[in-house]
Amino acid sequence: MRDKRIKPNTNYIIKRCSYCNGIFYAKRTIAKFCSDTHRVYSHKEKNRSANYFGKDPNEGAWLPPGTIPSNEMPESKLVFTGDLASLLVEISEYLTKEELDRKLESILGLPPYSETKSWQDSSEQIINNEYYLEVFRILIADYKLYVWPEEDNNPNSSGEVLNLKDNIIKELTAQVEKHRNVVENLENENQNQKKLLNAHEKLREQRKRMDG
Ligand SMILES: [Zn+2]
Question: Which residues surround ligand 1, an ion (CB under 5 A)?
Answer without folding.
Answer: 17, 19-20, 34, 38
